[in-house]
Amino acid sequence: MYLLDTNIVSLFDPRRRAEAGPLLDWLRRHDRLIFLSVVTLTEIEAGYLKLLWDGKTARAAQIAALRDGLLADYSDRLLPIDRSVALTVARLAEAARPITLELADLQIAATAAVHGYTVLTRNLRHFTPTGVPALDPLVGLPL
Questions:
Q1: Does 25 show up as a binding residue in the annotation?
Q2: Neighbours of 72 (CB within 10 A)
Q3: DSSP H helical segments within the chain, as ranges?
Q4: Of 65, 77, 75, nearest to 34 (Cα)?
Q5: Looking at the whole model, is its pTM more than 0.70?
Q6: DSSP code for 16
Q7: Which is it for the CA torsion 12, 142, 33, 90, positive or negative?
Q8: Can you give the three-state secondary structure of 109-133, one letter per residue?
Q9: So where are the chain's domains?
């Protein structure tokens, strides 16, 4: 099972699909193995709101469509931050010392750790220090 980092989800954006290569087809074929963290929704919503604030309404509408599609497609595969994940965040941050990682990355890593999933990410350096399994699917698709 796999948990998508937000930078992988961003490849679902029509403007970035060319960067994804065969990844999007692979994700469609293995969709029951793919999960999202609520953290990814937070990051997408923050981007949407920033675009609105900046007056970029057309782009904001595209991001809103992406968000709404994710909510529909992953409704049964959207993982929360519960007590176990919250405690694991602190443990992973400690394990990564002296490297300081972003809270969102720690939350995604902790969600993957609690569920026994592998993170799919373009930024391995954000996850490797935690010891949580992570792969860059643009370098090599899993399975």
A1: no
A2: 8
A3: 6-9, 17-20, 23-29, 38-53, 57-73, 83-96, 103-115
A4: 77
A5: yes
A6: T
A7: negative
A8: HHHHHHHCCEEECCCHHHCHHHCCC
A9: 2-135
31 annotated ligand-binding residue = no
Backbone CA torsion sign across 65, 71, 72, 74: positive
For residue 115, the one-letter residue type is: H
Angstrom distance (rounded) from CA 126 to CA 80 = 20
User: What CA–CA distances, in Å, run from 44 to 67, 86, 97, 112, 132?
Assistant: 7, 21, 28, 19, 23
Tokens of 27: 């994700």
Superfamily of domain 2-135: 5'-nuclease (3.40.50.1010)
- One digit per residue, the tens of pLDDT, for the chain of length 143 reads 999 999 999 999 888 888 888 899 999 999 999 999 999 999 999 999 999 999 999 999 999 999 999 999 999 999 999 999 999 999 999 999 999 999 999 999 999 999 999 999 999 999 999 999 999 999 988 76
Query: What is residue 76's three-state secondary structure?
Result: coil
Cα separations in angstroms, 61 against 28, 43, 64:
24, 16, 5
What residue type is 50 in one-letter code?
K
Whether 39 and 75 have beta carbons less than 8 Å apart is answered as no
